[in-house]
Design a protein that fits this description.
Number of strands: 9
Strand order of the largest sheet: 1-2-3-4
Radius of gyration: 27 Å
Strand content: 25-35%
Structural class: alpha+beta
Order of helices and strands: HHHHEEEEEEEEHE
Distance between the termini: 80 Å
Oligomer: single chain
Largest sheet: 4 strands, antiparallel
Number of helices: 5
Shape: elongated
Length: about 210
């Protein structure tokens, strides 16, 4: 009789387990891969928050809140950015194509495309964060920084002879004796033209 008493409860438990398993399969379970609208919503919210200048809150929308917030802030500071505008371009599976536009001041604008991946998170999908989420060429510990163009001729005379070249601090005279004559006007004109700059990748040791 004791054996019979356990038959019905065990059968009920088995049915419940099967139904529960079916619900998990149908609904996707906690570790299922986000796709489609979920990816668009997660990436869209992240990009809007980042573009609004709230690096900490943007980081909170990723799977590495502290690391992401710090890395986003470091890149914004290193670039001396006046603004960043990031927009969603399209979704494919668990990935999203995005376009990032940095406004760096003095007429400097830097634009590039990137791909972000979305993963399942606690309660909602999250943007998977690595340094490459900021720029595809960034690795662990890297950050972005603006540098003046280090080499190259900036200005030549009518015969093609170099007069100014790009130095670490901007235009400089090839012949130092001519500096007082040409730098005040032409040097300032070139610098204001926004051409004497480049974006560099800097590692944790400060090497480019």
């Amino acid at each position: 009789m004791r054996t019979k008493k356990w038959l019905l409860p065990c059968g009920v438990l088995a049915v419940i387990a099967i139904v529960t398993a079916a619900i998990v399969v149908l609904r996707g379970g906690p570790d299922s891969t986000p796709a489609g609208d979920d990816v668009a919503a997660a990436v869209g919210q992240y990009l809007r928050t980042w573009s609004d200048g709230d690096d900490r809150q943007a980081g909170a929308l990723t799977d590495d809140p502290r690391g992401a917030g710090a890395a986003l802030a470091a890149s914004r500071s290193g670039l001396g950015a006046a603004a960043v505008t990031a927009t969603l371009q399209g979704v494919s599976g668990d990935s999203a194509r995005v376009r990032v536009k940095w406004t760096l001041g003095q007429g400097r604008v830097w634009t590039y495309d990137n791909v972000l991946t979305v993963v399942a998170g606690d309660g909602a999908p999250r943007v998977h964060f690595t340094p490459a989420a900021i720029h595809p060429e960034l690795g662990e510990g890297d950050r972005l920084a603006v540098r003046a163009a280090a080499t190259g001729v900036a200005l030549v005379d009518r015969d093609g002879k170099p007069l100014l070249r790009w130095g670490a601090g901007g235009p400089e005279a090839v012949e130092p004796s001519l500096a007082p004559l040409i730098l005040p006007g032409l040097g300032r004109l070139l610098a204001d033209g926004g051409t004497a700059w480049a974006v560099s990748r800097v590692d944790r040791q400060g090497r480019e």
